[in-house]
Input
Amino acid sequence: MPGSDLLIHQVAGWRRALVWPLATLTRFWGSTLRLEMDAATRALLEKSDEPIVFALWHNRLFLAAEVYRRFRHGRRLCALISASADGAWLTAYFSALGMDAVRGSSSRLGRQAAHGMIEALRAGHDGGITPDGPRGPRYGFKPGAVVMVKASGARLLLLGCRFGSAWRFRSWDAFCLPRPFSRLEVRAELVEPEVLEQSDAASRFEARLREFSPD
Output
């Protein structure tokens, strides 16, 4: 079908209701986790005087929901999510957790998605990106993420964690699901605006996120 490659998949009706039990389980599951961090990281997660773009690896997405619940609830957070069918389910899931989505990716509707995210950030909302998503390669920081943050004028926060104990899925990103009541060592670093202007910014951020999220 002409133009079908530009379709933004949606989950609607009774199917959308299927994610609510999962969202409820996520909240309970996340509440059992012990998030350990230093005072500087906690202060950055609670920073609310300007819009923040959280950048974390795709396989650490479970952390995003819990950080939002504990430290950012009350602020609108827009996550950049693929236009694919998988992205539709993730969008419905994030919505059940109180987060919004901007649909698109580097491979599908990238310009439209970037524009939507930039508008949300300029409006004062937080943003969330997985710079190695939606298809990898795992732990690769795509330069497009840097361009989008620069255009928005928002601050970039690199967010990572080390899992004390977690299950790993056999997916392209080796998705990590922390075991209930386990420990997560959380680290965050706020990027200075001038660093975004450097030609090697993406590779530098990649190195830092790899350091923050060791396997």
User: Anything to note?
Assistant: Residues 24 and 97 are 8 Å apart (CA to CA). The two ends are 42 Å apart (CA to CA). Residues 1-5 have pLDDT under 50 and may be disordered.
